[in-house]
# Entry
Amino acid sequence: MRSTTRAETFPAHTPAVSQIFTTVLSHGPLTRLEAARRAGLSPAAVTKAVRPLLAAGYLAEDADGEARPALGRPANLVRVDGGRALFIGVKVTGDEVIAVLTDLCCRIRLARRLPVTDRAARAVLTSIAELTRELRSEAEDFGAPVLGLGIAISGDVDRAEGAVRYSPFLDWRDVALAELAAMTTGLPVVVDNDVRALTVAEQWFGAGVGLSDFAVVTVGAGIGCGLVIHGRVVSGAHGVAGEIGHVAIDPAGPLCHCGNRGCVEAIAGDAAIVTRMREVTGRQVVDSTEAVALAHEGVPGAREVYARAGEAIGRGIATVANLFGPERVIISGEGLAAYDLFAEQILDSFTAAAFGSAARCDVQTRPLPFEEWARGAAAAAIQSFITSSPTPTGKG
Amino acid sequence: MRSTTRAETFPAHTPAVSQIFTTVLSHGPLTRLEAARRAGLSPAAVTKAVRPLLAAGYLAEDADGEARPALGRPANLVRVDGGRALFIGVKVTGDEVIAVLTDLCCRIRLARRLPVTDRAARAVLTSIAELTRELRSEAEDFGAPVLGLGIAISGDVDRAEGAVRYSPFLDWRDVALAELAAMTTGLPVVVDNDVRALTVAEQWFGAGVGLSDFAVVTVGAGIGCGLVIHGRVVSGAHGVAGEIGHVAIDPAGPLCHCGNRGCVEAIAGDAAIVTRMREVTGRQVVDSTEAVALAHEGVPGAREVYARAGEAIGRGIATVANLFGPERVIISGEGLAAYDLFAEQILDSFTAAAFGSAARCDVQTRPLPFEEWARGAAAAAIQSFITSSPTPTGKG
DNA sequence: GTGGCTTATTTTCCGCTGTCAATAAAAGAA
DNA sequence: TTCTTTTATTGACAGCGGAAAATAAGCCAC
# Structure
């Protein structure tokens, strides 16, 4: 019953083509001249690069309807035709599988969820397949093919191999997820760490557009960090990087599940906040929603719990800034539901702990609906599609 | 009286030429085939790249005298002719100006020092000029031209502009040092942050050869860190990065001159150690040499001071490892005179605080004679010489 | 010694990319 | 209408790096 779409490939025959496409993708509609300037190429190269992309339908041309300088030949805006192709992004947590259908511009078209009852890889894979099938069938209404599937999972993930090395939340070890999912769905599959996937989405479609050095910090159950340095996402020599959650900031702090004391996550992670909220208020608190509620109600001591968490996060971010000097830090995560509770502390303690010019780093916050994680997975799939060489052409 | 050597340039006409040269420079004598494999080029490209470099004398060919596999045509080793060109590297501290003369392979040929009595830029510049003149005149015996001058200074240095933005130790602000030194010496000048320069030296000539992700941590008066990520030295968006010294690891720690508490430098920097040694032993201790001596003598409490410092350094390194997952961390610095005193703690606390795969990072130590800082400056000059395009040829 | 074998290096094209300079196109201005 | 101004396109071209084939240079067996 599965549609056996022959894997459609992207006509990125040359570096210039990829570069122009990603430039237009990130920087919205552009004139060819402008695209040339941004990509550091000659206008002639842009014309040549754009042609096959127009022909294949990935780019479209707008007659520039806007008010324009009224002199000279009017510019033709080139933009990515988002409706040309669709992608599916899936985020797997210990409780849920969240899937979104996005277009080529990574705009979410549809979203679906499925609870996880059995964390075994086989069961999760079935859920992924189920959601994928559902979204694909609905996608038919959009009249565009689904060209890739991205899966985001927290933990140690080897994107190149498409394997989950170790995922604590799911208790997986060495699962060749990409291969399995590709067999089940018939789609090209990318598997990546969730924070890295989110970082890719920010780099291409979010607050990281145009920056060569920035960080994404996610606050929630865990505290994670994705880094972009020299314009590329950092993966670390052993596939692990950005473990801001286990940066130890206080030797006298609470014990962390990693065995150390005073990790950022042990102070500001959801579980830590809930535990502490229980201790401080003496009430039954089972999840972070309740903890937030207590703080908002003004229960004595509750706000201090968040203040302390915010301080820890701010110091963690300052550490990142001191070490890498990013241009911007984007704070995001489910934990942002409580953002008003610790925003001030994050900024204050960041400012206090940032050294010298590191304090010039722009600290932003972005709400992160849970679908955003899945969107990150879709972004990874889009990235993979775009950079997949159709035929190992040229220099090889 | 200054020799008006017309600035000799490096014949790096194409990317392949640069790549092959740096490959041979870092990986010692190589056969063309081997060089091709390492650089990811075809053997034919190597032949073509090597020819102009041989002609210009930067590369030389050895008949391979070694025992060889005894089958097939013998390979011809290609190596960099270190004697072809000389460079001068200068490190400026608050007390001294240290200068070295190196060859193209960054081997130190001569070293000179001059005390700093007046920290004003003009006075220091005079010392630099003096040492440069001396070394150049002695260099004549080597029969090779001096092709560049590198200057390393701690603090906020803008290499691209050749300007010292702010140097706390010298109390300089916005000094256009490269321009001044170039005028005085008539040499092409590179000015860079001292730790970054040292990192370049490690990347090309030291323990970082062949690694795309590693860190250099220097222990001494300050605690510094140079990062190489994706094969490039990290400078940060604002020109400052690697401030491991001001990573705060203990909110209850001693006050740091940066205004925070518990910075690594406030615990493990020379000044911090001396201060604490005084407190703990109750003796007069004026510098770190004396502090080391006390610890070696077994004065009660003295060793604990170093243990505590080692622990702080280890935790700082673990933070770096957690955040970007380097393949190796190279610990170096004048402070290594005391290395036996805290080696164990560094490794122990690193191992304890490193999260997951980050612990697989290889932590090495290298002695760092003080001239090594100056050598780093020379490495920066060499790098600049090699990558300086002779004529803005080709694309552009 | 000579022919054969193996491996290293060089040569000889060749495709391909992106630049340059000239040209077309699309308006408004004169 | 014609000129001006700005954007887009075209075609010639230079040059980089690859592939394959040719050549070089030893060693070995006979």
Chain B touches chain A through 49 residues (CB under 8 Å). The CA atoms of residues 64 and 72 of chain B lie 13 Å apart. Residues 1-5, 391-396 of chain B have pLDDT under 50 and may be disordered.
